Amino acid sequence: MLFDQDGNFKIQQLFSYPNDNYERLKKEALKCRRCQLRENANGVVMGEGNLKNKIMLIGEGPGANEDRLGRPFVGRAGKLMDKILASVNLKRKELYITNVIKCRPSGNRAPRQNEFEACVSILSSEIELIQPKVIVTLGSTATKYLINPEKSITNVRGKWFKRGDLYILPTFHPAYLLRNEKMKKYSWHDFKLIKKAADRIKELSNSGEF
Questions:
Q1: In 62-203, which ranges are E strands?
Q2: Contact between 111 and 61 (Cβ < 8 Å)
Q3: Which of 120, 156, 176, 182 has the fewest C-beta atoms under 10 angstroms from its C-beta?
Q4: What is the pLDDT of residues 154-191, one digit of tens each?
Q5: Distance in angstroms (rounded) separating the CA atoms of residues 201 and 55
Q6: Residue 13 predicted with pLDDT over 80
Q7: What φ, ψ does residue 165 adopt, rounded to 5°?
Q8: Which helix (H) or strand (E) holds 55?
Q9: What is the CATH number of the domain that holds 122?
Q10: CA dihedral 172, 176, 181, 185 (to 10 degrees)
Q11: 115/47 Cα distance (integer angstroms)
Q12: Does any domain span residue 114?
């Protein structure tokens, strides 16, 4: 798990990245070759989006299109996610979207524990820089690595987990929804919760409480 119950990073990090300037963080992260994933990937795929709205969406890792274009969530799953966001009056540019790992595993397999640990310093710096109030874990891999390795996404999706001042909401990965269309209604319910959280964060920001 990345977080303990108080919202502190639980995993010991052997590497550090800039956590006060996104462009410096990205520049350093793009050089990463700490695990074997980089050998077969076109490059490191960093997150993108809004750095100020305090909401992060975290998926598993880049797919083939993401690896080719160097951007997260730009394939079929990403297009579906954009549609789900639009259905609850959210825009992609209002959120920060990234992945647990930044290089594509061959065959689009799930990332292994050692690969997560090699890449987690980049993710941690993204979180430190953005200081989110809400993190949405997309799919089982992100949910297990951030919340609890024993948790099943089907059992925890749509439920809030509090870690210190941080709230984490697991939901299905859009790639899963492409294969299981009947589950889209549950994801839509989850994203309505995310919309409510986004509106509340905006309200508090406008009032100067953030």
A1: 96-99, 134-138, 161-163, 166-171
A2: yes
A3: 182
A4: 999 999 999 999 999 999 999 999 999 999 999 999 99
A5: 9
A6: no
A7: -90, 5
A8: strand 55-59
A9: 3.40.470.10
A10: 0
A11: 17
A12: yes
